[in-house]
Amino acid sequence: MRFHLLGPVGASVEGRRIDIGPARQRTVLAVLLVEAQRVVGIDQLIDRVWGEAPPRTVRSTLYSYITRIRAALQSPGSKTGGVDLTRQGGGYVLEVAPEQIDLHLFRRMERDARAAADDERAAALLRESLGLWTDNALSGLTGAWVEATRARLDEERIAASLRYHDIEIRLGRSEALLADLREWVAAHPLDERLVGQLMEVLYRCGRQGEALECFDSTRKRLAEQLGIDPGPELHGLHQRMLVADPALSDSASVPQAMSALPVPQQLPLPPSPFTGRSRELDELDHILASRADADRMVVISTLGGTGGIGKTWLALHWAHRHLEEFPDGQLYVNLRGFDPAVEPLSPTTALRGFLETLGTAPQAIPSDPDSQAGLYRSLVAGKRLLILLDDARDAAQIVPLLPGSPSCAVLITSRNQLTGLATVYGARPLALDVLSDAEARELLHHRLGAERVAAEPESVSALVRRCAGLPLALGILAARAATHPDFSLAVLADELSEDAAQLDVFDTGDVSGDLRGVFAASYRALAPETAQVFALLGLAPGPDISLRAAAALIGQPVPRTRALLRSIEAAHLVRQGPPDRYHMHDLVRLYAMERGELDFSPEALDTALRRLIDFYLHTAGTADHLLRPHRHLIELGPPADCGPQPLEDSTAALAWFDAEHPCLLAAQRLTMEKGWNTPAWQLAWAMDTFHYLRGLLDDHLSVWRDGFDAAEKLGQPLARSLSHWRLGHAHAFAGQSGEARHYLLRALSLFEMADDAVGQAHTHDSLGWVWSELGDHQRALDHAERALDLQRSLRDPVWEANALNAVAWYHAQLSQYAQAHGHCEEALTLFRRHGDRHGEAATLDSLGYIAHHSGNHDQALDHYRKALTIRRETGNAHQEADTLVRLGDTHHALGRDIEARHAWQQAVEKYRAQGRSEEAQRVRLQLNALDAETV
User: Fold this and answer.
1) In the chain, is it the N or the C terminus that has fewer CB atoms within a 10 Å radius of its CB?
2) Domain, as residue range, for 775
């Protein structure tokens, strides 16, 4: 059985056509034949056959077509000879030998012709391959995919015909081509290579006048239709005819510009091993597949990313996978845009290299750069070429190397974003990120062998973690390990354990492959001011940095900072994840830290870091006040010139804390390392409310331990007493009652010595909580009543209400519900009058508890639901979990087990998220008991 695409689509057996059915059914067969031996997804089939507006019943219609095609191929007498249409992997695949399909047979013979040892053999193969065409490709079919595919295949036919004509002219058989060439030029009157071949054949056949008339008519047609003159090759041929160049009469000496061009094969070896990048490979495949729909524009793809991210690695791997898509060859040039050893390659030098590769004699290359670019575009016109421009510095280096023919594809790698290419030329940018941990492990597995990797899993994990997915770093370490196969991988892991020495581990002695050298090349390409900003960014604590924090660090206004960061991002030295948040790869940050220590004095670095710490502290103080407006403020001192970040309300404050929390923790660690004790304890204070609301027990305790140490070193009485109180409170918060009492009793003593009634009241409140947690509710009530007396004397209604609610809670724990209810009503009135929603929610929760234990379950549900609403609105996840437990208790008392289970399950999830394992386990037991009751 034979299949036909280079004419009417169909199949035949021994010259007899098989009925494949209507046009759309034949289009399905055409898609499967073009993609023979490859799975074609159902959605892809539908898109190619029906386009953008398929009917509602398209899938059933497609299945019907597939069934009919299969039946036609397997009908009696069809002699399928191994042809099979099967369902695989969400699509269909036509299993058939390529030589049974005229298109694939044509391509194979064309490849064989290019590889032929002599012109006679090449001419015979091309003659036979061109003879397979009986009409335009896919004739009889219509549709967007059909038209685009037909255009591509026609370009292949023209390219093969041009090559065949060149060989026949070289062999002195010009006259036999004359009729064929007249038809080709009539069909493609603007193709200058075809016109040139026809002129040359006419000239060699003694028809010089016709040859010159052919040139004149072509020149007029180009001017009228395109507004351009003939290119330099056609002009050169015309001039040689005017002076009767003897070479034109010598069949052994064809003009070089018009002779058969060599097929360039310039791609370096493909990388091995290659790991991961499946998403990026799929995207490049998609871009290549869409080139037929690119409205006659050259398809240009740009691979961007930081040095060492694997741009060239990916580009070469992809290019070698698609060699068959570019039968006219591949051009490659390393533009050395960021080579630390040499200057970037000039476009003129790169052009000359391409022109010589394409068969232009050095003496025939024009001196003018524009003429060189024009000659280059003429030579590649109509050819199916891949042009890989590696390590480009900027668009100015690239633009002269872009072809003008839509049959070509251009792949560019650069550490810069090259946004101008996307804007002007429609380039498709593809930014590379680091490898995943699984991909990094796979790379080490391939390079070092499965046994060695499996033998030291902890060392492998350390190497993967330290390289943070950077392929160059992984490759360097793998090469070092491979050089010493008897060494333990733990040796390398130990070398990477010290941050200061990490980059030294990646020193290969080769400047082009040394990680520090790779980063240095990108750094040197930055403008001086931008380079300074890059160096300072490496010092910023935390996993990333916001735009406003960066502005504080570098001491610049926000708009100027944004512009500078944009330049660094364009060089792929930082990455913007969420808008206005910037992240550096760990190893890039190490290099930035090195640059900071080299480029700035210690005093200048400390000044920059103090600006950043000041920004974090004052913005956190503002956010804390928005979350708890009635909380007593501490004196933070005047803010730096940049000032805190403006925040509108408590919602914005909570969102800011959520985004900046890792940076705030790192900022406090930095203040401890620097011995900056005042901001160290003040940061702990500023994060206090946020930690409580979010239930971040471990972080809350950790920052207050550091805050306490800083306050002790500082020696200021207020700082010491406040830090004792808050550290004790943090221990209580974490369920560590013994430690809590130690620090709280010391805090109470310090407040009493200072005659600080406010501090005494707060500490009594905290001690009441501790004793309640220990089960001594009477002693808890004593401390709460003492706190209430002090708050009333201070005439602070909000904190008086807080103490009233505490007294009510401990009365309720002692089953004194009447007293508890009276105190709660008084507290609720004060909280609502003064707009303290946290206090209002706490009191409603207390009222719910009182109602529940008094047997008023419906009233309890109402109170709990109102408390839950407020706690969710204010972001109080910590106490939301407690209220959910009590809400579940009430539902259970009412026999509403479904509602009880739902509330308890929510509470368990929140407890686990907050690291409150004991509370989670207690509620889990309640759920188990509920399940047992319902069995």
Assistant:
1) C
2) 668-880
